[in-house]
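Could you please consider the sequence and fold appended to this message?
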Amino acid sequence: MNKNYYAIIMAGGIGSRFWPISRTSHPKQFIDILGTGKTLIQNTYDRFLKVCPKENIYVVTNEIYTDLVKTQLPDMTDSQILTEPVMRNTAPCVAYGCFKIESLNPDAVIVVAPSDHLILAEDKFVSAIESSLETAAAHECLITLGIMPSRPDTGYGYIQYNDQVIDEQFHKVKTFTEKPTLDIAKTFIQSGDFLWNAGIFVWSAKAIVSSFDKYLPDMHEIFAEARAVYNTAEEKPHVHTAYQRCINISIDYGIMEKAENVYVLPSEFGWSDLGTWASIYQLAEKDYVGNAVIPSEKVIMYDSSNCMVNVPDDKLVVLQGLHDYIVVESNNTLLICPRDQEQNVKQVVADVKQKFGTKYI
């Protein structure tokens, strides 16, 4: 296994769209949301064990999740768990991980990925990552993985590419588009040169550090200044202080949309970002009338169909005459809402917070 290959798992989000199961104190990446026996971050970690040595895998997460990471990934050392004192989007998170790795190994090639995605075809995923790491090591480029779209989905960002290719399969990126309208998404699908943006990146340490210098110079300065303290006892206090100076910006907007040397690998490996209850419903096992129940031991349903039910396994739940609903109970909170209105969950969370404080959030 190549000792220059590294992985950074981004695990700082709070997953509010999966409330009430996902809470600020225990968000979705630390939950076995699909009932597989492993949490999402555990599955992500296991995938990267096939790509790089375990000592080369890092997790960047909010400070409050340190113990959760240690509990769920017991093989990780303290120096592999990089903590953020505040949420500042993905650019500071990527900068911290990549600058730290670069200070350890200037020849490092790094894959950066979210902790809470589903990958069904792991062999294809590993193959795509290994090809990307090889190309990133050989060329001064920034690589993103694009998913072949199966439908005009408005919940994903899109990547447009052209015919310029390196290493036969990596296409030059033409444009990035954030979540489009349905009509625009349909146009994208019909054109044939658009992919879903999976938010998975591969680059050499040198290439990404150089890109921060060019496109986010203030952030480059913040993390370059910390080179003297990386991998010492001073690292955490220094970085936590420095984080307060970071702007809130995504790596997509801060660098990927501006850089000239961005390439995409069109990929198919059974990917889902598990962003909504609808995505869980699509993937879950269903009964003959379309009900997905996790876990199902003590749920009885009469004249009910196409429901997504996730309730505690020690509670008896009886549902009658319910069609196309989400029913979720967790942490002393019950949510019942039509499946086609699940986008309102974020607003519900905001309203609950305003009315009851953070007790239920």
In short: Residues 122-138 form the longest helix (17 residues). The mean pLDDT is 94.
